[in-house]
Amino acid sequence: MGMSVAEAVRTLDDEAAKKMKRLIERGVKIPPQPRVLEELRKHLQRKEFDIRLLSRVINQDAGITAMLFKVVTSAAYKQHQPFETVEQILHAVGVRQTFNLVQAISLAAQGDLKKNPQVYEAFWARSQAVAQLAMLIADERIAVCNIFPDQAYLAGVFHDCGVLLLMQRFSSYCAEMHLGEPGRWVELAEEDSKFSADHCVVGYIVARHWHLPDFICDAIRYHHDIRELGMHASRTMVAILQLAVDIYYRDQRVANPEWEQVKDEVLPELGMSDDGLLEFVDVIIERFHAGQH
User: Fold this and answer.
1) Does 1.10.3210 match the CATH number of domain 5-30+113-290?
2) d(CA 234, CA 228)
3) Where is the HDOD domain (predicted)?
4) Whole-angstrom Cα distance, residue 293 to residue 284?
């Protein structure tokens, strides 16, 4: 089982824990894990890596299975394609790696699309694009960063899930945070003053509750604040996320106000310099679009 929400809140510092408790009292709902995930985790905890059994569990959920096939058409898995069955994916990508992808996809299956379909669709389109870009950056920089594409994808899908939950709870959140406008995203100070909320902390609680690896939970908590993180995997993960978001904006031809503030932390963390950046961005965008067809 995942960590309970109350246990997850206890892992926060006092200030953040108080804020999170207030949000839960105000009706922010932390989504439960789908049954497929719980079943898969039980098998993995018992070290049961029977590929046929695991693929049967995944195949129970047609929506998750369809999305899994979509994700593994990414250029990050080029050497293993094409995939015909879930068993093939488990064999080629690896059991734990596939589990990470299924966790990410399961989150994307949450969310009440009835209320505000355009906004939700736009949110998931952005999340999926950032997650795919993060996956490709991890794949290209694997030797330097030691973060795997499945881990980067997982962090990419979850890093802004707090925004989704706040959107579901506060009807004015989208408008107040300018979420429909190109190149606008949540401003942390503004979010705090208007909603007494922090989507990074909300996302962290979801990640803890869903039992994501600790370093990914920490990356979600500090994805707008790389300077808070020392030299370890969560810092590298935030660097990958920040570069993925910047490439997403470049691809959309929209300015990213945050990049100038973080690039001096991000680039060295990924073993890159300003000089090589444009060429690297071109490679990632090309691979990203190659995987979209």
Assistant:
1) yes
2) 10
3) 30-226
4) 15
Hunting for tokens 């994805």 — which residue is that? 223
pLDDT tens across 121-152, in order?
888 888 999 999 999 999 999 999 999 999 99
CB atoms within 10 A of CB 145: 21
Going from N- to C-terminal start, the domains of the chain cover 5-30+113-290, 32-110
Cβ-in-10-Å burial (0-12, 13-18, 19+) of 19 comes to middle
**Of 30-39, 106-115, 179-188, 237-246, which has the strongest mean pLDDT?**
237-246
Angstrom distance (rounded) from CA 196 to CA 55: 43
Does the global pTM surpass 0.85?
yes
**Would the pLDDT of 115 be above 70?**
no
Give the span between the Cα atoms of 240 and 145, in whole angstroms.
Answer: 9
- Rounded CA Rg of the chain: 18
Residue 1 has pLDDT above 60, yes or no: no
DSSP 199: H
User: Which residue type sits at 167?
Assistant: M
Give the end-to-end CA distance of the chain in Å, rounded to a whole number: 37
